[in-house]
Automatic annotation (TrEMBL):
InterPro entries for this protein: CBS_dom, CBS_dom_sf, Diverse_CBS-Domain
Claim: Iron is one of the keywords in the record: no
All copies of domain CBS, residue ranges: 24-80
Annotated protein name in UniProt: CBS domain-containing protein
Keywords: CBS domain
PANTHER family with a match to the protein in the record: CBS DOMAIN-CONTAINING PROTEIN CBSX3, MITOCHONDRIAL (PTHR43080), REGULATORY PROTEIN (PTHR43080:SF26)
Keyword check for Zinc: no
Amino acid sequence: MTLVQMQPRSTDATAVPRTVADAMDTAGPQVCDDMTVEVALSVMASARTGHLLVCDDSGRCVALVTRAQLTAAHDGSAYSDRVQLRDILGDRGPFTSPVTTMAEAGHMMRYNQVDALPVVDEHGSALGVLALAR
């Protein structure tokens, strides 16, 4: 016979689901979409991060770009030192809100096959990043 130890279940019927705000990291490096790919790679290396938040000229977060995306653009046949982030961004999403539940955010990440989501406020300003634990 195997002995199983049980954990008592909370009796609080009004338990609030955990939200993205509870698990997100600070926003980290934010760069403008007119920055060149070359400079963005340098910023990413200096910050020792795998992604950068990209903002437009009004400060709204428009995308999250990864080292893999930047490297692919840099190594592409159409690359020149004038290629800007806005030239390679393509699909500009997904984003999430700090009040989104972790379950919803997890579903969104699986559906969109992304390892990190920008967390933005109601004005589109970056608040942080929700990233898969490594």
